[in-house]
């Protein structure tokens, strides 16, 4: 059974407190917070003040995904804004080990994300240092995209590495997650499913979260 991390990016921003409180009442394990800077990805989401506002009302840990260039500049600020997990992109971090160590020093759980074109093998030297590996199953930047089928193979490879070397990191997948592919993802080794529009556009988001969790 995977944990569910609904992406607040798909919430109604005019009723953000209401939607956070809905997630509090659900079986979601985390609230996924997508931070976009318009440079690393072709979209801008929200920044520190909104993250702080979410944290004030959230009763679930904030799973903060930094889709930004030079994330080292903002690690401490987002930690102070309530991030329990800080996930940075491999593609944005030329000194990834140093970045991961800094996240640990701040008292957050360190995660690293991979874009669809990036093979899992590039993380071979860092897997023992991270708490989370986030596999992007769409090209990051926009919600509601179609799931990339090659994701299954990437997750299987990552899970094989985890088992082979006895690592303890969790595998998270983000993009196009629904009730059709969730059971396959869990079988391949996924621990955390991120779902945005699939949850928030459903008639009963709390039930949808529970259905995903039981998939």
From TrEMBL:
Enumerate the PROSITE patterns for this protein: RIBUL_P_3_EPIMER_1 (PS01085), RIBUL_P_3_EPIMER_2 (PS01086)
* Needed co-factor(s): Zn(2+); Fe(2+); Co(2+); Mn(2+)
Q: How is the cofactor bound?
A: Binds 1 divalent metal cation per subunit.
GO MF terms on file?
A: D-ribulose-phosphate 3-epimerase activity; metal ion binding
Annotated protein name in UniProt: Ribulose-phosphate 3-epimerase
- Give the binding site residues for a divalent metal cation: 32, 34, 65, 174
Q: For this chain's UniProt record, which GO biological process terms are given?
A: pentose catabolic process; pentose-phosphate shunt
GO CC, one annotated term: cytoplasm
Pfam families, A to Z: Ribul_P_3_epim
Q: Which reaction does it catalyse?
A: D-ribulose 5-phosphate = D-xylulose 5-phosphate
Q: Annotated pathway, please?
A: Carbohydrate degradation
Active site per the UniProt annotation: 34, 174
InterPro entries given for it?
Aldolase_TIM, Ribul_P_3_epim, Ribul_P_3_epim-like, RibuloseP-bd_barrel
Which keywords does this chain's UniProt record carry? Carbohydrate metabolism, Cobalt, Isomerase, Manganese, Metal-binding, Zinc
Task: Give the source lineage, highest ranks first.
Answer: Bacteria, Pseudomonadati, Bacteroidota, Cytophagia, Cytophagales
Regarding protein family, the annotation reads: Belongs to the ribulose-phosphate 3-epimerase family.
């Amino acid at each position: 059974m995977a944990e569910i991390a609904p992406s607040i990016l798909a919430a109604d921003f005019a009723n953000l407190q209401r939607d956070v409180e809905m997630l509090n009442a659900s079986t979601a394990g985390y609230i996924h917070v997508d931070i976009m800077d318009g440079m690393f990805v072709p979209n801008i989401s929200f920044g520190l003040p909104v993250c702080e506002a979410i944290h004030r009302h959230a009763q679930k840990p904030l799973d903060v995904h930094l889709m930004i260039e030079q994330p080292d500049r903002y690690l401490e600020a987002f930690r102070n804004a309530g991030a329990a997990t800080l996930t940075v992109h491999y593609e944005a971090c030329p000194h990834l080990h140093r970045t991961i160590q800094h996240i640990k020093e701040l008292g957050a759980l360190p995660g690293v994300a991979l874009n669809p074109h990036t093979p899992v093998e590039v993380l071979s030297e860092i897997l023992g240092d991270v708490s989370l590996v986030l596999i992007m199953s769409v090209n990051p930047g926009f919600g509601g995209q179609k799931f990339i089928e090659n994701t299954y193979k990437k997750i299987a490879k990552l899970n094989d590495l985890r088992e082979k070397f006895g690592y303890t990191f969790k595998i998270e997948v983000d993009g196009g997650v629904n009730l059709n592919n969730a059971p396959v993802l869990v079988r391949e080794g996924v621990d955390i499913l991120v779902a945005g529009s699939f949850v928030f556009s459903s008639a009963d988001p709390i039930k949808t979260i529970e259905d995903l969790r039981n998939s």
